[in-house]
TrEMBL record:
Protein name stated in the entry: SHSP domain-containing protein
Organism: Didymodactylos carnosus
Domain SHSP: 362-466
Domain of life, source organism: Eukaryota
Pfam families the UniProt entry points to: HSP20 (PF00011), MMR_HSR1 (PF01926)
């Protein structure tokens, strides 16, 4: 099973035979096989992030990974706080929780799909907008952004869970897709509308019409799948955003008349989609891949450490502790008492988030031109403020799915000894602006007037959802 490969990344092992020392790890009796307790970036100053395992994993550990379980489909479960991500995951993995059992997801929680789906691994994250005290808000915001980046980077599929659609959910979906446009691989997106307070099929149909077909301009699709050797059909809805095809599935209140109509077919439909594409496979050495990715981000998140610390910048990297079940800074991996002598580190003051505050888009404090971006049913209109640039100093590339502008803001030849105030930071910049809907490149028009560049284009025909 996939969990054996996941656990093979853990470091606390018997020196003689290499067996995982399960007794060293705190264990729980919930859904997840492995929890990486990334509760706050601030924890790296001391004890770091705890690794927690599921109880009774010994049999899985003893099963050696094979070629069929070392890679497969990795699925990120995303959504705001209290949207029902754990409910969905329990249904997909056939795990029953006690009634009204409140479960709080910590950091990144990983679980394998079970006996029927040995080549699927799910990654759940602590919900967006989890409440914290005011003094912890900055670290919480940066931590949540990092968690999203990590699971999006590691995943081949992304499932976003919403309830009754709210404007905040729309912004969340928008920013996740915008971030995915710049990933090296093409993500596949599923939206689960978890209507946990809706009991009748008539009410579900009304919500589908208003919140899916109208809001997303989604088309109704009936797909056929093979489930337990039998051909079955399920209904879903398909829309396009940022040139991604979104598959929408419905869940109603558990045990209701609407649930009898929708829930099992939606779950079967989701699991069948997850099993289709072989090109979507990823390595199940998830813990190693996670540490590698986070190490590319820490220096940007924390910036330069205080000069008085005397440490090399290379120490701002994380590893597994030599003798304790924690992920810690390299300089602390041998320490017996992690709560002593906190490492001096502060969040960078140059972090810039996207418009929704969900992803960090600029960690260097570099200057970027101001933009106004408008869209209607026919096309897009983009205004960029680029005063002070001469012809030939900008490199602009326009494609169906977005525009990329490269340029360099000089300091206008001023060489002052003492800097009194700088509003615009000089230097090179790259501005990537994704389009929600593909445009017809042949219709692009560009004008320049008094430092403002005006770009217009018509949308491409959006037919062709499959």
């Amino acid at each position: 099973m996939a969990v054996a490969t996941i656990l093979s990344d853990l470091a606390l092992r018997d020196k003689d035979n290499g067996t995982l020392l399960l007794a060293k790890y705190r264990q729980h009796d919930l859904l997840y096989d492995v929890i990486i307790g990334i509760n706050s970036l601030e924890d790296l100053k001391t004890c770091g992030w705890e690794i927690i395992l599921k109880k009774n994993e010994q049999k899985r550990v003893l099963q050696e990974p094979t070629s069929t379980t070392t890679d497969g489909v990795t699925v990120a479960i995303l959504g705001a706080y209290n949207r029902g991500k754990i409910f969905l995951l329990s249904k997909l993995c056939n795990v029953v929780f006690p009634h009204n059992h409140l479960i709080h997801t910590e950091g990144i929680s990983i679980t394998a799909g079970g006996k029927e789906y040995i080549d699927i691994v799910f990654m759940d994250t602590a919900g967006t907008d989890t409440p914290v005290t005011s003094e912890k808000l900055a670290h919480q915001r940066a931590t949540e952004a990092l968690l999203r980046e990590v699971v999006v980077h590691l995943s081949s599929f992304i499932i976003i869970v919403v309830n009754r659609l709210r404007a905040t959910d729309q912004v969340y979906i928008d920013k996740v897709l915008e971030h995915c446009k710049y990933q090296d691989d093409r993500k596949r997106i599923i939206i689960v509308h978890n209507l946990d307070d809706i009991e009748t099929a008539a009410d579900v149909n009304k919500i589908i019409e208003e919140e899916i077909m109208l809001t997303f301009s989604a088309l109704r699709l009936e797909k056929q799948f093979r489930v337990n050797g039998k051909i079955t059909s399920t209904l879903c809805y398909a829309s396009k955003l940022y040139n991604f095809q979104l598959n929408h599935f419905i869940l109603a209140k558990d045990g209701s008349q609407a649930a009898n109509v929708w829930n099992q077919k939606s779950l079967d439909g989701i699991m069948n989609i997850l099993q289709v594409p072989t090109e979507a496979k990823r390595s199940f050495h998830i813990v190693t891949a996670m540490l590698t990715f986070i190490n590319t981000r820490l220096i940007q998140l924390f910036g330069k450490k205080p000069a008085e610390s005397g440490d090399d910048q290379d120490d701002l990297q994380i590893v597994q502790h030599d003798s304790q079940p924690y992920i810690v800074l390299c300089s602390r991996k041998h320490l017996p008492e992690l709560m002593k002598d906190p490492h001096p580190m502060e969040l960078s003051g140059k972090l810039v988030y996207d418009d929704g505050g969900y992803f960090i888009k600029n960690t260097g404090g570099l200057w970027e031109p101001r933009i106004n971006f408008y869209e209607n049913k026919d096309g897009i209109r983009l205004f960029l403020e680029l005063s002070g640039f001469k012809k030939g100093e900008l490199d602009t590339a326009i494609a169906e799915t977005g525009i990329t502008i490269n340029g360099s803001r000089n300091d206008f030849g001023v060489q002052a000894v003492d800097i009194i105030h700088i509003s615009q930071i000089p230097g090179k910049f790259t501005l990537n602006i994704p389009f929600k809907h593909a445009v017809d490149v042949s219709t692009v028009k560009s004008e320049r007037h008094e430092g403002i560049i005006y770009i217009t284009a018509l949308k491409k025909n959006l037919d062709g959802l499959k």
